[in-house]
Amino acid sequence: MNRALIVLFAIAFLAMAGCQPAEPQTRGGMAFIGGTQGLAISFVDSMPPPEIFDAAQSVFSVGVYLQNVGEAPISQSSLRNRYGYVEIIGISPQQFGKGSQQDLKVTFAEANINLEGSRRGFQGEIIAGEIDIISIDDLTYLPDRVGNQEVTVRANVCYEYATFTNTDICIKDDIIENVFDDTICTLSGAKPVSNSGAPIQVTHLTQSPGSRETIVVTFTVANVGKGVPFLPWDAQGAPADACRQTFGHNPARNTVYAEVTVGGDSSLYNIRCPLLGGSNAGNIPMWQGSEATLTCTITPVNTGGSRIFTDSLQIDMWYTYFEAIERPLLIRDANMGTGSRVDGSI
Predict the structure, then answer these.
(1) 43 is in which domain, residue-wise?
(2) Higher pLDDT, 138 or 209
(3) 245 and 221 in a common domain
(4) Three-state DSSP string of the chain
(5) Is residue 251, in this structure, part of any structural domain at all?
(6) pLDDT at residue 63 greater than cutoff 50
(7) What is the CATH number of the domain that holds 108?
(8) Is pLDDT of 4 > 60?
(9) Does 306 lie in the same domain as 176?
């Protein structure tokens, strides 16, 4: 059998192997703690209270717990989260003693929010992420109502976050010559994925041969959290309000920024991802929040010999994330049942 036939047989063999169904991939793992949240968001007890009185007879606050349960830091000393904020909607600022909607919004910079994420200690124990509170204070309902009314207090939270993903891929200088050598690693099939704790994740990844020196990696990016991702602020020309709910007119919605590297050194490999504009970095659109599938070719810069080894593929993603929580608030008419408030008659 001549060499040309051997090459054709080897490529056919690898193609068949690459078409096998992928096994489900695990999230988390030893590299990271894992998890599907960035910030865990909740109202502080009695902030707001279950009910208040009208006519400026009750003064209250709305407080929001922010706990960084993921693994990316939130820091004012870096670009990340200079523009993060908590905003209260569902109530009229003028009726509740504020001058404008801006008075119902507190930025992370104003509150000096710095939150370390969850992490492993020296003994492997998990150290919980840090917690802080943002509150909007001195709220009071000014109108003198006739009858009770229930309103919904909603806290919108917008913050920038990141996901870091690692997986081992198989590198062979001469794929054809080493097609049957799987003693070190295999060229085809699903690879275990380790994601840092975050709402955007790589849910599965497969590797297959592309040519004599090139491998092909295909992976899926999904929003596994409860919110909506947007491009990071700097990618939109900060300080754009990325999370403003003009969903139909905001091209940054359901889009994340990603960078794909191998071995922690971009000079060791040529990486081309068509969805990223033929580069190793760019925006990943997720149409209407659906999963996005990317394919990248990876070619070692220095080849030769018969090297067979594994190397670490990193997929790092940055994005702004929007989430919201709600709580009912009952506004009681303090004069209900005592007659008209207009003339004091019964």
Answers:
(1) 39-160+325-332
(2) 138
(3) yes
(4) CCHHHHHHHHHHHHHHHHCCCCCCCCCCCCCCCCCCCCEEEEEECCECCCEEECCCCCCEEEEEEEEECCCCCECCCCCCCCCCEEEEECCCCCCCCCCCHHHHEEEHHHHCCCECCCEECCCCCEECCCEEEEEEEEECCCCCCCCCEEEEEEEEEEEEEEEEEEEEEEEECCCCCCCCCCCCCCCCEEECCEECCCCEEEEEEEEEECCCCCEEEEEEEEECCCCEEECCHHHHCCCCCCCCCCHHHCCCECEEEEEEEECCCCCCEEEEEHHHCCECEEEEECHHHCCEEEEEEEEECCCCCCCEEEEEEEEEEEEEEEEEEEEEEEEECCCCCCCCCCCCCC
(5) yes
(6) yes
(7) 2.60.40
(8) no
(9) yes
Residues 132 and 225 in one domain: no
pTM value?
Answer: 0.83
pLDDT in tens, 197-212: 999 999 999 999 887 7
300 and 178 share one domain: yes
CB 81 within 8 A of CB 74: yes
Number of domains forming the structure of the chain: 2
Does 61 reside within a domain?
yes
